[in-house]
Each structure stands twice: as C-alpha cells, then as structure tokens.
Write a structure and sequence with these properties.
The protein is α/β, with parallel strands linked by helices. The chain is about 45% helix and about 10% strand. It contains 7 helices and 5 strands, in the order E-H-E-H-E-H-E-H-E-H-H-H. The protein has a 5-stranded parallel beta sheet, with helices on both faces. The longest helix is centred in the C-terminal third of the chain and has 48 residues.
Length: about 270
C-alpha cells in the first residue's frame, strides 16, 4: 500500500504503473453522532476500511474527504453538509485528475448513508464518459455481520446511528474519542413513511442517538470491519481483474507496436 498523503509523487506514479494501478478514496462526513461519538465518525470508519482495502490490493490510499451530504442531520449544530451536486463533483473531478495521473481505477469507500446517491451518480458519470473505471462501495457484508453481533434493538430497520453498531466500530478504530460516560439510549417513534420519504432527524431525537450504544464493544467493531473488508474484496474481484486484463493487453499492444516500428526503421 502507498499512503499518498505521506508519499512523494514519483512513488505514487510508480504505484499507478503497477498491476491495476488502483486508488482508494475514503469519502466520509462531518455530522453529529450523539453526545458520545465525534463528528468525524463516518470519516474514521471509511478511512479504516479504505486503508485495509488498499493494503490488501497494493493500492494507493488517498486522503479522506471529511465532508459529505448530511442534510438529514443538518438540524444538529456542528454538522456541516455538502450538497449532493458538490459530492458528485468532488469525485468526478478527482476521477479525472487520477486518470490524468495514470491511475488504472478508482475505488470509493462510502462512510455515510447520505452520500449514496451522489457517489453513485459520480461513478456513473466517470464510467459513461470513459474517464476511469470506478466503483463505489457501501458497506458490503456489514448487514450480515450486524445481524450476528447486535444485542440491542435497532431504532428502525436499516438504521444504525450512534448506536451499538457505530459505537462498536469507533471503540475499535478510535477508542480515545468515545465518551463512554455519555452513553444513552433513544428509540424515537417514526412516521410510517420513514425511510421512503426524505426527512431530517433532529425532530425525532434531541440527543442524536438512534438506538442503544451501551452494549458496544471493540470486539464487535472488529468483526464488523472484517466482514465489510471481506465483502468488499468479493465485490471487487471482477472489477480488479478487468482492469488488470485491459492494462496487460495495452502493454502488449504497445510493445508489439514498438517492435514493428523498429523493423520499419531498419
């Protein structure tokens, strides 16, 4: 793995020339996670997964994007949200820059639910316009792991925010940033169209907690992270193989062309 943020450019360029030449981008958010977790929780999670993937794939790890589309939690002070168009534009611009730098492909590791739509839109644009092979990962494998480790009741189907799940991950990734003395449970009553209609969350929970963090452990966090990385590796199998195949074919064609030119020159 190459940590691009701490590496001179010739080494990053050389890494892009090897194998699939992959870049891994953690895309996080800056939003409230209750009174006990930091605003950078989603970024920390995305960065941890991205780092593990970059290590497994011998890829270039890019610095994380610390802000995302967090409109649904914008009612909590301290949350800083980007528009959906901005999130999409950031990835498209970075994808173009990576292509110009010779990267073979881009893997975006999403850290927040609100980024899903704009990140997939960016992925589609980069693919449709032939800029760079790109894939967005949205916690593959984590749902099954959540079902295995969860002891507390979920606040709503598919909702895990400042609860046992996210707190477990942060206890593994950044335990010193978790305020255990501030744990509290919150189980709001949601309207029947919750999850299908866009709505902000602050009217439902004053604390910003949705669920119960008290049963969180670092061991659970590690199991969740491991499952997510393994799920991501399974998703990426064909993506990586396709890039490696195309790059190998391009090198072979370039080499054949060079030999032919040499024969003509003689």
């Amino acid at each position: 793995m190459i940590d691009a943020d701490r590496t001179p450019w010739p080494d990053v360029a050389a890494a892009f020339d090897r194998g699939a030449g992959l870049a891994v981008l953690p895309f996080g958010a800056f939003e409230q996670h209750g009174p006990h977790l930091p605003l950078g929780t989603d970024t920390a999670t995305a960065a941890e997964v991205a780092g593990r993937l970059a290590d497994r794939l011998d890829a270039v790890l890019l610095p994380p994007v610390h802000y995302g589309d967090t409109w649904n939690t914008a009612g909590y002070r301290g949350t800083l949200s980007l528009s959906t168009a901005t999130v999409t534009a950031i990835v498209v611009d970075l994808g173009r820059a990576l292509a110009a730098s010779g990267a073979g492909g881009l893997i975006v590791v999403n850290g927040d639910w609100g980024n899903r739509a704009p990140l997939y839109a960016a992925t589609r644009l980069l693919i449709d316009q032939g800029v760079l092979p790109t894939v967005t990962l949205d916690h593959p494998g984590m749902d099954d792991a959540i079902a295995e480790v969860r002891e507390s009741r979920a606040a709503a189907p598919g909702l895990a925010h400042a609860d046992e799940i996210e707190t477990s991950i942060m206890l593994r990734v950044a335990p010193d940033d978790v305020r255990r003395d501030r744990y509290e449970a919150s189980y709001p009553v949601f309207p029947s169209d919750f999850g299908t209609t866009p709505m902000q969350l602050h009217p439902f929970s004053a604390s910003g907690v949705f669920g119960d963090p008290t049963s969180a452990t670092a061991e659970k966090g590690e199991r969740l992270l491991e499952a997510t990385v393994e799920g991501a590796m399974a998703v990426l199998t064909d993506f990586v193989a396709s890039i490696e195949h195309e790059r190998s074919r391009a090198r072979d064609q370039s080499s054949a062309g060079g030999h032919a030119a040499g024969l003509v020159d003689r």
